[in-house]
Amino acid sequence: MVRFVTASVSEKQGRPENQDALGQVAGDGWGAWVVADGLGGHHGGGEAARLAVDAVLNSLKSRPGCSPEAVHAHLEAAQKAVLARQRLSLELRDMRTTVVLVLADHTTAVAGHLGDSRFYHFRRGQVIFRTKDHSVAQALVNAGELSPAKLRDHEDRHRLLRALGAEEDFRPAISEPRELMVGDALLLCTDGFWGQLMDPELETALRGAATPQEWLSRLMLKIKSQTTSEADNCTAIGIFLEDDQESSRV
């Protein structure tokens, strides 16, 4: 039987406030993790992120389980919560947030997202899957007009094509169920986290880490060593899949 061991981090870097939010919940044989990043260019971004996370967690109470349909339903609940808040205040009518949600049971995981908060799946210390951002820069990569290695530094990396809070454009990307194995690791994070780390750095830190907390701590040390006064907030959730009997990792 698989056991989910989780750690998280959320730190303000060079921004006036941390507009990120995160949450998690565990049930009988399943787990759920969510990260949101309020858009700083829109008033109320931090509130939108918190609303999204809270709405997902509340939705999970009435619909546990791991399926693409469940992921869609929870993200739709988050969308409705943000839109409802927008209607109560003219100042918040443009509030937006990215979001990434992962549901998992003992054998599979399903991810859904809007924006550029990401989900990574690692096996034997290597990235075997990650979500694709809803950004102009990622669209250029998809079209073969930009090298993936240059995405982080592209001037249009922060121009998002999808986010929670756009009333007529709710199009979450939802993965097919992914097989899980003991020894796998999962990562959910905002762009302030992954934007300062290349995949090999994520992998190197993972291979030497005994716990998800150690993994995230190593990555945060790397981020802080190169943080500037304008660096974005960093938020991440790391999950190790361990054997319930042996707690061993591949």
TrEMBL record:
PROSITE patterns for the chain: PPM_2
SUPFAM superfamilies documented for this protein: PP2C-like (SSF81606)
Xref: Gene3D superfamilies: PPM-type phosphatase domain
Residue ranges occupied by any PPM-type phosphatase domain in the UniProt entry: 6-241
SMART domains in UniProt: PP2C_SIG (SM00331), PP2Cc (SM00332)
Stored CDD domains: PP2Cc (cd00143)
InterPro entries: PPM-type-like_dom_sf, PPM-type_phosphatase-like_dom
Annotated protein name in UniProt: Serine/threonine-protein phosphatase
Organism ancestry: Bacteria, Pseudomonadati, Thermodesulfobacteriota, Desulfobaccia, Desulfobaccales
